[in-house]
Amino acid sequence: MSNSHPHKLGTAIVTGASSGIGKVYADRLAARGYDLVLVARRADRLNQIADDLEKRFSIRAEVLVADLAEPAGLSATIERISSDPSVSLLVNNAGYSILKTLAETPDDLFTNMIALNITALTALSKAALGRFQQNGSGTIVNVGSGVGFAPLSMVPIYGPTKAYVLQFTQILQQQVAGTGIRVQLVVPGAVVSEGWDVAGGASLDALDPSIVMTTEDCVDAALAGLDDGELITAPSLQDETLLRNYEAASGLLLQGMFAGKPADRYGIKR
Ligand SMILES: NC(=O)c1ccc[n+]([C@@H]2O[C@H](COP(=O)([O-])OP(=O)(O)OC[C@H]3O[C@@H](n4cnc5c(N)ncnc54)[C@H](OP(=O)(O)O)[C@@H]3O)[C@@H](O)[C@H]2O)c1
Fold first, then answer.
1. Could you say which of 36, 143, 212, 228 would form a disulfide bridge with 93 (CB–CB 3.0 to 4.6 Å)?
2. Which atom of ligand 1 is closest in space to residue 158's alpha carbon?
3. What pLDDT does residue 203 have?
4. Are 46 and 63 in contact (CB under 8 A)?
5. Beta-carbon neighbour count of residue 173 at 10 Å?
């Protein structure tokens, strides 16, 4: 569908806009003046949110009911991005976690989570990239997680899906460098949301409240980071040097791998 009177800021597509972080993104982007396409499975919630945002901010908010873990829902969302030149921002937020051991996790559950957290995010990023390359500009925001930085045994598959989001987004950033296209990675820590109920295996109530932030704080910090031109925004990370050290160490480790011969410690002499 094309928008014959595109708003100056264009249209933002927010996945997982029916609750939590995505719902706050929708609110904040509407307040900035973006028209919206709100994507998730729960039509009733999306319609309510769209009506509210249209009334409060005089923007257009369209609802796209889609299961992004299923081919039909993913295709419909790809098509929505690809066919509308007014699309200027994609927030790849839809995702969920499972807080169980691998043995306890049913196969259909982890394949579904991988389909959403990895496959859908990748396919939608690709569609948005194609759209933005035609437009000469645009922004992709990928929502990862702090657990993507290091292995944590309570999230044996969720953590690696977010490690994928981290590396995939960093590679996209390399590929769009010097163009009018921006790609931001947002890595929340622990945020109050329904996601904790969906995850199973851990209760938000059991966490020390001092380590959990609100969805509003998370999204407001993420948008402040976007405005500042940050590539990686860690809303709750106080000591930014930890992130810089991580980036530097992973880059050095990658370089160190390409030496062409066994390391001296293995004692292999030719
Ligand atoms: N909360 C945290 O502590 C935390 C920390 C780090 C990262 N994150 C990340 O933040 C993102 C948002 O999570 P949240 O905490 O805001 O959780 P949430 O409140 O449960 O929101 C998840 C959103 O994703 C949508 N969704 C789930 N499955 C979907 C599917 N198959 N197709 C389309 N939409 C789907 C849900 O809507 P429907 O159910 O209506 O489809 C909902 O709108 C996720 O990527 C999560 O991994 C959260």
1. 143
2. 47
3. 73
4. yes
5. 18
- Does residue 21 have its Cβ closer than 6 Å to ligand 1? yes
Residues (pLDDT < 70) of the chain are 1-7, 199-202
**Predicted local confidence at residue 201, as pLDDT:** 59
187 close to ligand 1 (CB < 6 Angstrom): no
* Euclidean distance between CA atoms 97 and 21, whole angstroms: 14
Ordered by where they begin, the domains of the chain are 11-255 (3.40.50.720)
According to DSSP H, which parts of the chain are helical?
20-32, 43-57, 71-82, 107-114, 121-135, 158-176, 195-199, 215-227, 240-256
Dihedral angle, C-alpha 23, 25, 29, 34, nearest 10 °: -70
Q: Whose CA is nearest to atom 17 of ligand 1?
A: 195
> Sign of the C-alpha dihedral, residues 82, 84, 86, 90?
negative
Which residue, among 191, 232, 27, has the nearest Cα to 97 in the 3D structure?
A: 191
